[in-house]
Input
Amino acid sequence: DAKTTQPPSMDCAEGRAANLPCNHSTISGNEYVYWYRQIHSQGPQYIIHGLKNNETNEMASLIITEDRKSSTLILPHATLRDTAVYYCIFNAGGTSYGKLTFGQGTILTVHP
Amino acid sequence: SQTIHQWPATLVQPVGSPLSLECTVEGTSNPNLYWYRQAAGRGLQLLFYSIGIDQISSEVPQNLSASRPQDRQFILSSKKLLLSDSGFYLCAWSEGWKLVEQYFGPGTRLTVT
Output
């Protein structure tokens, strides 16, 4: 199984950057790193994905190390609405048919 | 735009009773469809995925089954519920050729008593 390691919980002050780390040392060359988040009692929401290069969209930035064994999701200006469980996942796509294996994730709590 | 619906939103069923959860997607064609379950305090577990009508794969052996009678309809069923079937059931879809993003429905919270 595609396995990632994330800290179980993190805190962040509102307005500050939230940096969520993820280790994926067993990732192979054709596997993408995905980040999703799940706000309490809702379905997960896609945030961002990347393969080798750093990526940025309207929600977040994704920094992937050169050896691709770890990555960091950055929420540049965290708000209270960003309090959620954040999941880091990797998947090869193609014949994997988009099968995503969700681990325990990181509970991010944003404080006023 | 695409939307995904699930119903019912909540369900309380006795042990041994049957189950039918429905998921429909609007605004897209030939989506990949997925059923996940999330037990209390746990991560999501993929149960079934489907790349087309009557093309369903099971990820975890259990007393649940899935069917896809129409292109954008995905049904999760059980003939006899167990206590361990309690959880939050989520349906998701992705574009058939684009596997990057999965879009999740609002979920069904099932309690088996």
